[in-house]
Amino acid sequence: MPGLKPEYLLAVVAVILAARVVLTLRSRMVAGSTGRSMIVAKEYLDPFIVAGLAAWVLITFVARTYYIPSASMVPTLLIHDVLVVDKISYRLHPPHDGDIAVFPPPEETDEDYIKRVMGQPGDTLRITNGVLYRNGAVVPEPFIAKQGQPYKDENGQTEIAMNPNYNLEIRDYGIYVQDTGGGDSTWQRLDPSQANIPPKSQWLAPDRIPPHCYFMMGDDRGNSEDSHMWGFAQDSGTFYGGPRKGAKAGFTGRAIFIFYPFNRIRILHRT
Q1: Is the dihedral of CA 203, 208, 211, 215 positive or negative?
Q2: Are the C-beta atoms of 94 and 237 separated by less than 8 Å?
Q3: Catalytic pick from 72, 87, 224, 227?
Q4: Which one, of 75, 24, 76, 77, lies nearest residue 46 by Cα?
């Protein structure tokens, strides 16, 4: 999920600051250039430096923008939507069920992912015939893509949403997935070397999501690579397993509204 990275903005500010230093030194070393150089520095470069530093603080600690590159969150988020992500909320409280959250995944990628929180620590969770059960009760999901619903993919081609072709259970200290799409229907446990599955010692119960772990899903269930493939997201610490085992985990923030395209401006409510 690409967005303006703080380090890129800081690099731009550093270049402008370097130009500011050069002009200042030039004004002191070259006779007759003091006035012109200082006017350029004060009227043009100084405001950019101040604005750049303010923007860096904003996107590092408060909020930043992201755009959507894939269809995994259709119909809630469409390809090329631009979002504002609140980076303060999760410093004050953990993610809630139903949040649309941005986070680094336990996969080898430099980009954050955006998915919906569908299970948090202590929850039981299973998916049977496309129906999600949390703590034994059916979870109403008016936001998910319906079977047969059309949408545009990354290349602008029309695709049709499909129900998920798997069943899933959290049990026996792991995530178990059963293919219902015509392949091997044997229940398969996600491999901790390929997915973020904590060791048994980190679980409080064999069938409940472990502390600091969250089950994430895309709203287009049949077209989303999410926790049913790569395991849990985490709110802190380092990843327990998967390709990024030992790397820093956490949540970047919560998506709060779409501000572009203008005809799609809306607040993203928790469900």
Answers
A1: positive
A2: no
A3: 72
A4: 24
Alpha-carbon distance 166 to 215, whole Å? 16
- Check pLDDT > 90 for residue 187: yes
Which H helix or E strand runs over 259? strand 253-260
Query: Is 115 part of the annotated catalytic residue set?
Result: yes
55: phi then psi, degrees, rounded to nearest 5: -65, -40
**Count of CB atoms situated within 10 Å of the CB of 241:** 21
Is 245 annotated in the active site?
no
Q: Which of 180, 153, 3, 128 is nearest to 73 (CA)?
A: 153
Task: Please give the pLDDT value at position 150.
Answer: 83
- For the stretch 119-160, pLDDT in tens is 999 999 999 999 999 999 999 999 888 878 887 766 777 878
pTM: 0.79
Nearest to 161 by CA among 169, 170, 152: 152
The residues facing 152 across adjacent strands are 158
Q: Where are the alpha helices (DSSP H) in 193-260?
A: 227-230
Mean pLDDT, to the nearest integer, of 99-103? 96
- Per-residue pLDDT of 45-82, as tens digits, reads 556 555 555 554 455 545 678 889 888 999 999 998 99
CA distance 105 to 216: 10
Between the alpha carbon of residue 123 and those of residues 154, 208, 212, 266, the distances in Å are 34, 5, 12, 30
